[in-house]
Amino acid sequence: MGGAKLGPTYILIIIGRFIVGAYSGLVSVLVPLYVGEVAPLRLRGALGTLHQLGIVLGILGAQVLGLRALLGTAGAWPALFGAGLLPAALQLLLLPLCPESPRFLLARGQRGRARRGLSRLAGPAAEAGLAALEAELGRGPAPRVGFLELLRSRRYRQPLIVTLGLQLAQQFSGINAIFYYSTSIFEGAGLQDPAVGTIGTGVVNVAATALSVVLVERAGRRLLQLLGLLGMMGCAGTLGLALKLGGPVWGAVALASALAFVGFFAVGPGPLPWFVGAELFPPGPRGAALGLAGLVNWASNTVVAMAFPPLQDALGPLVFLLFGGLLGGFALFTFLLLPETRGRPFPTEGDPQNPPPPSLLSPPEKDTELQCLATHEEP
Predict the structure, then answer these.
(1) Distance in angstroms (rounded) separating the CA atoms of residues 192 and 105
(2) Where is the Major facilitator superfamily (MFS) profile domain positioned along the sequence (predicted)?
(3) pTM of the complete model
(4) 159-172 pLDDT tens trace
């Protein structure tokens, strides 16, 4: 895309977008899966959230470079597209430093390669780590579970519903409506320079995601997801009403609501779905489940991007009340179905200590922060 002016511009941009999109779809699933498998248990959530922190730092960098004072001009836009070569080249150079996941290798029965990978990751503690992994996974290779078997299996139905529900909550929250159309939203709010508001969303996104890195192993996944969804629901309602009423004062309220909306998203619903899904599945179906979750995420992303402009034309600013209603539903979904996975090892096939989650109609066990607080029990 950086060389789009050297040939048929539209064709080169479309080809470049296809390649970048395919890569983005792969890494959105593979990176959190890999990090979750190699990270120590006590740091699994924090390191998993770093994946999202890297993404939002890239978004902020693109927003800054896209300013008219930098590369956002008619002559410099190819350089803005070409700037993506730098992080891609850095990743390519650093990739040999990443060993294959020892957990994945051991689940496939490749003990020797798993030991070598652990030696690179844990050094002298590799043998102890290998023994712990063998005790967790068992001695035999894990059975492979494909997409069709995953969809047919009653055993995996509950965690699959939760995993896909988290991805739908992330996209149907309306967050990408804020990002994709932030300029028009801030113009409607009366902001003289909408680019300032756009950069503001990026800064808040980075700051709140960094806060999530700190909180995820302290507050837990479930609490952050619930607080994020409920906070976004309140901000969506305030944003819709403020844009509807208009005027300088309500314009400031709309700007504050949009920034708070992004902040609540980045604390929980942004980073958590990518690695919490991996924590709900044993090795056999984990890859297929996360692949399906990534497909659902990007498909729903496309639906929001395509549906928001006509919805905005039909409903005006009140479209954000629609997102608020969806967020309320997803908050209830989270409260009823999402178990707390902080500090728990990955499930294993047939492990009596990791039974399948309760059925949809059964009340969840008291293994979460909010439920323990409601009964005055210690988590």
Answers:
(1) 56
(2) 1-342
(3) 0.83
(4) 999 999 999 999 99
Structure tokens at 162: 């939760």
User: Minimal CA–CA distance to 294: which of 54, 56, 107, 22?
Assistant: 22
Can you tell me whether residue 31 is helix, strand or coil? helix
In this predicted model, what pLDDT tens digit does every residue of 47-56 receive, in sequence order?
Answer: 889 989 999 9
| Beta-carbon contacts of residue 72 (< 8 Å; ≥ 6 apart) | 65, 66, 80
In three state form, how does the secondary structure of the chain look? CCCHHHCCHHHHHHHHHHHHHHHHHHHHHHHHHHHHHHCCHHHHHHHHHHHHHHHHHHHHHHHHHCCCCCCCCCCCHHHHHHCCHHHHHHHHHHHHHCCCCHHHHHHCCCHHHHHHHHHHHHHHHHHHHHHHHHHHHCCCCCCCCCHHHHHHCCCCHHHHHHHHHHHHHHHHCCHHHHHHCHHHHHHHCCCCCHHHHHHHHHHHHHHHHHHHHHHHHHHCHHHHHHHHHHHHHHHHHHHHHHHHHCCHHHHHHHHHHHHHHHHHHHHCCCCHHHHHHHHCCCHHHHHHHHHHHHHHHHHHHHHHHHHHHHHHHHHHHHHHHHHHHHHHHHHHHHHHHCCCCCCCCCCCCCCCCCCCCCCCCCCCCCCCHHHHHHCCCCC
Query: Residue 170 in 3-state DSSP?
Result: helix
pLDDT tens digit string along 186-198? 776 677 777 777 8
Q: Would you state the structure tokens that stand for residue 176, as one six-digit string?
A: 């990408």
Task: Dihedral sign for Cα 231, 234, 237, 238, please.
Answer: negative
Radius of gyration of the chain (CA): 22
